[in-house]
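Exercise 7. Predict the structure of Lytic transglycosylase domain-containing protein from Alloyangia sp. H15.
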Amino acid sequence: MFYPVLLLLLCLAAAPLRAGGDQPEPALTEPGQPEPGTLCSPGTFGPVQCIRPSHFVHDTCQALEHFARRNALDPGFFARLIWQESRFNPNALSPANAQGIAQFIPSTAKLRGLGDPYNPAEALEYSAQYLGELTRRYGNQGLAAVAYNGGEARADGLMAHSGGLALETINYVAIITGLAAETWRDTPPETHDFRLQGDKPFQQACHELARNRTLTAYPEARPPLHPWGVQMAFGTTQDRALAQFRRRAQACSGTVGGEEPELVWQKSRASPRGGYWMARLGRDGQGDARQLCSKLRQSGCICAVYRNS
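Solution. The predicted structure, encoded as tokens:
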């Protein structure tokens, strides 16, 4: 009959044409399945967070805030620390073999139970949990940053006034927090501004940081000087003073250990630059300074004791 044939023709005309005849186009992702390459946290310490390749910035910033707040960290602090560690690169590898977005070295990853440091969601979960633990142990986020970068033994030495920090850690803490490590130990602020960009909400500022490398940097932090210093070297620039210190310290490396000197500016007419940078090992008392200088001399180094003005 005419009507059934007409109806059949209308149905065929309305049906969409597909590649390969009547076979439907394959979906990129099965319904309910995650995007290929998506990496998720194991949920060891709380709800699972996932980071999708096509939404890496959005998901990373969301994970940063989630894990920070879950571990009583300021999201701005956590983001600044991870940015300093890896620039949010999940595949980062340092010369010291620190791996992934949170830069865990293999021994620390194993100790903390982190399975895959190159899984950014997992690494951020474990990093925030560790930083939260360090904050509770040492009393504030600044000292947690000291331990995260320099190790807990160095942080313990700083707290006990029995050891110094590596220059890398000194700079690391100042860049992330805007304050010196000694300030976090001696006179920590009750509150601190860790915001990434002024009044901008965290997520907006985090997205801009990841996409445009936009970050409000802190002014250079200068650690407070010890009252007394054991001078071993000097130079017209900080780099020259440090280089001379390291050369001279080789003769008594067993006494100096890994302690970094404090750099003290002293005016001098003899200098073409109007003064010199003095490299001194800081001590709280004159007696302690004299005792250290005596040991250095016995080990073959030249030194002198001065009050830091």
